[in-house]
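Shall we go through a protein fold together, starting from nothing but its sequence? Label the sequence line and the structure token line clearly, so we can match residues to local backbone shapes. Would you write everything just below, so we can both look at the same thing?
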Amino acid sequence: MKFMLQSNNMLTDKSGYATQSLSIFQRLWEHGHQTAHIPNYGHQTGTYEHLVKLPNGNLFPVQVYSYLQHTDARKVISGHLEHWEADALITLYDIWVAAANFHDYLPNHLWIALFPVDEAPLPNPIKARIPNVDFPVVYSEFACQVLEDARITRYDYIPHGCETNFWTPGSRDKVRDKWKMSKDVFLVSMVAANVGNPSRKAFPENLMGFKLFMDTHKDAHLRLHTSIAPKDDDPGNGLHMHELLENVGIPSDRFTIVNQYSYAAGLPLDYMRDLYRVSDVILHASKAEGFGLVITEAQACGTPVITTNGSSMPQVTCNGIVTEPLHPWWTGFGGWQVLPDPEAICDALCQIYDWDTKTRKSNSKKGVNFIKKNFDYDKVIFPKYWIPFLEKVEEEIKVRKAGGYMSIQSNWQQVINRRKMVVVEEGELSEKTPEEKVKG
């Protein structure tokens, strides 16, 4: 089959959408499916082929088509699909941003939409788009439940994956030597985009939790991997981080912010791996997550995480603590997320701080194995989820090319079976559903 993948960023970008797009792109090609790419941002004119460096160091050829935002993008995409002779368009971004009649511009192509759901009930803008998609695909257990509650059963579930050959544990002390950082500091790191206001990543609540922890732990230090100001200095696009830190009461000698030029230019993935390894804990207690790539990557590197009991976060948390939120939080988009509790965040930081070496090593091993058993791209995500899904897509394409029509329905029992997750216990492996895992 031939696909065209449309996602937000260039494959050379370091965002979550970009890394997942590259992982999917690579494996489609490896399994014999020629695939081209349309980035929504980063390439506005022309069509060309360039080489993308994979996490393993290999170079990969990519045919890139421009999005041309100054024109009617729907017509442009339709033309690109015809030019590439694609069988289907795969989109990886919020489905609600697509035009209501987007599918009308794809008369000869299937539309496979991979999209996040991070609030409940299912917001109307998302619900309105799903009937127009040939293959709706969500990537969290939470999203599956929200669709079921909305009585939507025509969908597939393919979780995001983790490149566990790259995201691996390493020496904390070696990275600290390289970064000229004290080995005595208890480093709390946040890796989150400063986008939107109010902040979905819950910067105020997380920083307030760190402040409470910092007041009783003199060796605590905060590292922020984010931008210090909103895009275009528009308060609706994010937070002024220094202003927030000052008002929360975190003095300048207790925090470090990533170099802003390097952050904007794009730091290599090796740097991100070192950041996970050098940290004692990754603080990621968001209001909501569509999946939680930072959470899985950090645990794959052996580092504990602090998350919130909401949306997809419990599904992907093993090595760390899932904190209880203060209360539900209405987004205005038409659904509920949750508001993290600073005191619960502080308590979680205190608990992880008090782990002894044996506990830390044991939890680290459990977390690494949990990510490998549930989210490794080559051993789990592609063979267990993508290959059966692609077989169904191929059958649909054959039927349509023969002039027939096939009703696209998920085999519900197969979906349920594939959605079982492996929970790593001490010394053994057992299969439980995520709901059973959360209950203990």
